């Protein structure tokens, strides 16, 4: 995917996920990841999974495979209540930040004196898992967006509940998962000269086809 922000390029990755109590499980359910596998553990990855739950509040683990990892950051979400939750993770050239429902919940600068920037490696983008650690998310994911800019808190909060047009500045990947059959999902970016990055849908095993469902309750998204 040529548009995927790698190296130390600024970025935002955001999505909606339907979270059940079993999904708030440390280091097992990864929402997304990209970077090489096996990892060199020098901030060469970019992904989001979960940490331990404390006093019924789930926690998030924004990770880069070393240096900018920030485990067990309280999400503010009651993990015992099934619900749609919006997650966003950004890199602004200095810090990795993570947002839950549009609210900043994690900020991390490098804890290595010599490496101050990310070195995200080239790879496929995996939505709903981290193949290198066999850590896959068990529930719904929707409205997955990748940006080549570090979006601000106000930008994330303003647009998280709305479907995008597809030509927004900095948008380089947008999957709505509105298909009802087949083995692919369309990239909805409509910017001139953009090469669509069609996603391949995977099932639990290689000899299975994807199963299509209508989420209940539906994702809390409004039309533009």
Brief digest:
The protein has 224 residues and is mainly β.
Give a description of the structure:
The two termini are 27 Å apart. The strands form four sheets. This protein has a six-stranded antiparallel β-sheet with strand order 8-7-6-1-12-13, with helices on one face. It is mostly beta strands and 224 residues long. The chain has a single domain, classed as Jelly Rolls (Sandwich). 3% of the residues lie in helices and 32% in strands. Strand 6 and strand 7 form a beta hairpin. The longest helix is centred in the last third of the chain and has 7 residues.
How is the secondary structure organized here?
Layout: E1 11-19, E2 32-34, E3 46-50, E4 57-63, E5 73-78, E6 83-91, E7 96-100, E8 103-108, E9 126-127, E10 129-130, E11 135-136, E12 141-147, H1 153-159, E13 171-175, E14 184-185, E15 199-200
